[in-house]
């Protein structure tokens, strides 16, 4: 009798799991992109080997060309600067379950708007002119992707298709204005807008050969992460992204959230375009449409739409891009090789999404399977 009494309390005892549900999701969110990244690199290594080159040498050159020296690291940060903001253009609407892939359009229109507005403020101090150009880029990009959100909310038009088509329209508009009404007569071989005066150019971070756009991108990612994780606005977005109909029943303004997040996404890409013009190119021309918006899609998916995780992923892809010319010279590979690597990584990320919820199944899922 005493043995039964002594053992009775143990019958209701349950061993707590090492990780709670939130910890499981965080660990899975880290492991899935890591597995996808390693799988993509392995597949690309096989591709390089099939072409008679050494995968080990390739990855060594990627490290040396993108991260091995202070000079190469600065080059990586410069290339990552626009990618931080174009990745946000994908990650922000994704909080609501929207797949917006037209950041390239907002990027080129933001750059074009900055190139047009800048010379109009030649009378103003340089800092005021730069701020005005930034607002112009933000407004141009915000309105452009905001239209995608409006079509989704009011007419039910698929945002993936509409944003992609509007990107093509934006590039066509940019080329039309650059080669037509806004063309600088002095730009003969490569049509461009009037070059920005030196006071209107975005300078470099003191002590570094990296423009201030990189710092702006870092701050934007950190601010977005704070808003999404620490504010009621971000909480409402996550609820609406999980189940829009349930969120609407609970009284959440799902429509306004869609409009706000798509406009903010476009604003980020438009600001990236402005920085590219004011810090790198000095004028708007066809070089704006260099694929920064499309590369941002890859980075956002690598980061699993987490604004803070965008920072290391943008540096990784920026480093790979920075090492492209170095690899081309040393291994006699075409410059498109880096694009092949990015494509394989993107496919690996898409496939890896099937592991979500399966890599580390929850206790409820295990109990359901056992029953």
From TrEMBL:
GO terms for cellular component: plasma membrane. The keyword Transmembrane applies. GO terms for molecular function: transmembrane transporter activity. The chain crosses the membrane at residues 30-50, 80-101, 106-124, 130-149, 161-178, 210-236, 257-278, 284-302, 309-327, 339-356. Pfam families: BPD_transp_2. Keywords: Cell membrane, Membrane, Transmembrane, Transmembrane helix. Coiled coil: none annotated. It is found in: Cell membrane. It is a multi-pass membrane protein. InterPro entries: ABC_transp_permease. This is ABC transporter permease. It comes from Jiella avicenniae.
